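Shipment paperwork, digital attachment
Item: protein structure file
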Amino acid sequence: MKKFGIFSALTAITALALTAGCKKESTPAPVAVPTVTAEKPAAAPGELPSGHPPMDGAAAEAAAAPSVPAGHPPIGNVAPAPVPGTPTTAEGIAFEAPTEWQVKPTRTMLWKVFGAPKVDGDTDDGEITISSLAANIPLDANVERWCGQFELVGNKPCKDVAKIRDLKGTAFPSKVIEIEGGLKSAGMGAAPGPVKPGWRLIVVEVTTPGKAWYLKFTGPGKTVAKWEPAFLKAASAIK
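Attachment content:
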């Protein structure tokens, strides 16, 4: 009887231990939750990057135009490229380029871009750009900036090199600015490159009631000299 009692007690203790082990729940291992970092959305087509200065009128319209392969027909409301010899219009002005100029692709903040064929002996065509700015910037500040695109002859200060005069017979008040030297940068929207000696820049500032427009003719000296009369005639005819 004692052996049977001891055996029964051991059996009971074993059963209780097994029951307790079955009822005990195991604690699951923590699950790592991946951290997702939201990426800053890219600027939509035609949308300026954060912090970009405001663009106005035709320049903003040109920047907003969708990019398509060369030779692709216009999409949506994108205006076709101007034909030299045919007046093109923007806010407050109409401009007619000489028929010999070629229409070039626009760049950021530029309304129109044209190429003037180079003369014999020059390595590059001349380039004519038309642009405007939302802010009214004093002419002196613009002249200093344009001088900064050149290595000026004799390292003279800008005020001693830049030539400024009035353009006569125009519908709007207009001034002509001339700078020459070694070109370091072709200006707005153009990539910097090696210095090009013997280059000229002619700018016509046209002050309309709404804002100022800038017609810039940049190129090798002989090419600019050839097309200077046609350039100034087209600038004078703006209305």
